[in-house]
């Protein structure tokens, strides 16, 4: 049924749970798993003089965090039976939901899997702000893992 499943990860516990679910689904459907990590725009631009080293440090840290999150999913894919083919994507300087939806479209994914709470924490109350945007704006089905 599914050929290409998009997993949105941010390294949180909720996205780790979503990753396990996405890998099981991809394995059962013999689907490819595309894993996206979105780096939000640098939060301090436009607040007077900006230190370029702050932007560099922010991006470097975010890329390191993305590499860790990606490697955890790669390990899950390799351990699955049958193993799941995986492609990794890093999207920078865009809001999380927009980056996830753009990647789903660009990669022609037929399902999006995401955790119910990640970086947004309690900001989205019951569902999570990013998950809520995915559910309401995605042209393909979205599976939200609690």
Explain what you see.
It is found in: Cytoplasm. Residues 1-146 form the UspA domain. Keywords: Cytoplasm. This is Universal stress protein. InterPro entries: Rossmann-like_a/b/a_fold (IPR014729), Universal_stress_UspA (IPR006015), UspA (IPR006016). With 146 residues, the protein is of the alpha/beta class. It has a five-stranded parallel sheet, with helices on both faces. The protein has one domain (4-145): HUPs (Rossmann fold, 3-Layer(aba) Sandwich). Mean pLDDT is 89; it is low at 120-125. It has helices at residues 13-29, 52-79, 96-106, 129-137, and strands at residues 4-8, 32-39, 86-92, 111-115, 142-145. The two termini are 23 Å apart. The chain is built from four helices and five strands. Helix 1 (13-29) packs across helix 2 (52-79) and helix 3 runs parallel beside helix 4.
Summarize the structure.
The protein is α/β, with parallel strands linked by helices.
Task: Outline the fold blueprint.
Blueprint: E1 4-8, H1 13-29, E2 32-39, H2 52-79, E3 86-92, H3 96-106, E4 111-115, H4 129-137, E5 142-145
Parallel strand pairs: 1-2, 1-4, 2-3, 4-5
Helix pairs in contact: 1-2, 3-4
